[in-house]
Every structure is written in C-alpha cells, then in structure tokens.
Amino acid sequence: MPETYLYSIGTPGQPWGAAERDVWRARQVRQRSYADDVLTAIEALRGRFDVEMYGDVVYADAQHPAERFPLRALRSRHWQPGLPSVLVTGGVHGYETSGVHGALRFVDTQAERFAGRANLLVVPCVSPWAYERFQRWNFDAIDPNRAFREASPAQESAALMRLVAPRHGQFAAHIDLHETTDTDESEYRPAVAARDGKVFKPGSIPDGFYLVDDTDNPQPKFQQAIIEAASRVTHIAPADEKNEIIGSPVVAPGVIRYALKQLGLCAGISGARYTTTTEVYPDSPSASPVQCVEAQVAAVQAAVEFVCTASAGRSLMED
C-alpha cells in the first residue's frame, strides 16, 4: 500500500485498541463552543418555541476531565395531534456545520409559517462534543451515524432514540441534515480504515447537493420536491462516470439510496413514511458555507411543505 495512504495512528491491518483511541482523542482540539453557538441560539428561541431537554452527554477519561453537554430540542409550541409531524435533525456529525446552523435558521426564520399546519420537532446538534472539535466521531471514536440501533454504544445516538421513541411512527417525515467535505477524503476515510484495520481506498467527493433516500421505503416524489427546492439555492451533484454518487447508483438527479435502518443511520429512527438525508458540499468552488446553510433551510422547508400538502390532499379525499 502506498505510504501516502497510511494513517498516522495504529498498525496497518490491525484494528485500533484503547491505546490507539487514546492517541486519536488526544489530538482532538476544541475549536468552538456548543454552549455559545447552539444552546444560546436555542435559548433565544424559547419565547416562540418549546425547548425539550432530552438528556446529557458526559465524557471523561484519565487524561480528560469530565465534560457535560446538555441535549436540547425545539418543538412547536402548540402541538396538535391531528397535524402531520416532522422531525428535523442536524449535527449528527459534529463537523458538518451547515446542518446545525441550517436547523437553527429554519426554526428562527421559517418554522412559524407552518403553525397550525404541521408539528415540528427540531434537534439542531445531536453530537456536541464533535461539534466543538470539528469531528465526525464522538469521544469514543464511534460514528454516531452508524450507531442508531438497539443498545447503541454512542451516547448521542441512544439519547436521540429515547427522545423519538414515544413518538415513533407518529412522524410523517424525518429530514437529517448533513455535509460532505474535503476532509471526508483527506481525514475521515483514512481514519476509519485505520481504526477498523482495513486498507484505505481513495474515492471522490461529490460536488454539490444530493439526497439519500431509503432503499426499503423509497419516496421519489418527496426527494424530487427537496431537490427542486435546493437547486434554487445551490447546484445539484452530478453522477460520476459510473452513474454513481459515493459508490451508490443515482436513481434520480441528485438522489441515491441506502438501507437506513440496517446501517444504523439517523434517518431510519422515526418510523416516518418520508425520510431523507441531505448532503451539501461547502468546499465546492461553486458554493459557499452560507449557501450551504441556506440550502439546508430550503430542504427542510420543502420537506415540511410536501407533507402538509400530502396531508391536506388525504383529508380532502376522506371528506
């Protein structure tokens, strides 16, 4: 294997143990504040929305004092059982900034437009420790977005599942906000290969916005509505020469599919009929980080509008 593909932690071909995880963790530097960026923004919205406290994430080891991160969600103030409900999640991967700030901006600037039409539960930052360190993994070198399963080893994933569990099957839609960045290829993918004792195989980064639908429950009209809204803000990622995006066949412009529940992905936790994962590309020469936040807001708006229209249509048919 060429030396350039070797990760700087661990022994090639051998999965990491506790010592390697300790080395990796020691390299993670706090670069921003979850309390300042997220909790303060949530508190500023408390006068207009309910704030739901759904737990804490606590991390510590012999080298690191305990850090406690309060977990908070925003909820429509007048929740009405007869309305369609939409779950919005961001920051499952803490370094994917536009998901966090897109969720917060949607609540601040757009959510009240849907009062009396939809119930909204918005979790802006699922993974606070990783948010502060621009990391994909949590403190334990676990990817939360592969850990949404029973007896999850990731505190963040387990806490979100507990929040959603009483409402499971009651959501019409769940939109999970993500980014694909250049560091996926330069840092994360080599790191995950090293952690798991595998060979890193270089790939490519899609240039633009795309969606991940559910293989087991595809909803092409829902995906199309979001793609159309996002395309008015940023460009849609083209397929590669194999008609793929990140190794998966493109089933419609800007849309691929994953087995959400089987892979332990966040978008598979709600039991909603309509589910999707957004991906924006803030490192694109044709987009900016601000555009990416705006694309996330447009995607959430389109998702909520879609279920409101679908619900109204069903009601008319029943009448």
Question: Explain this structure to me?
Answer:
- The protein is of the alpha/beta class and 319 residues long.
- It has one domain (3-318): Aminopeptidase.
- It is 33% helix and 20% strand.
- It is built from eight helices and ten strands.
- The chain has helices at 18-26, 34-44, 97-109, 128-133, 155-164, 182-195, 220-231, 289-318; strands spanning 50-61, 64-75, 85-90, 119-123, 171-179, 210-214, 244-245, 248-249, 255-258, 274-280.
- It has an eight-stranded mixed beta sheet with strand order 1-2-4-3-5-10-6-9, sandwiched between helices. A two-stranded antiparallel sheet has the order 7-8.
- A hairpin with a 2-residue loop joins β7 (244-245) and β8 (248-249).
- α7 (220-231) packs across α8.
- The radius of gyration is 19 Å and the shape is globular.
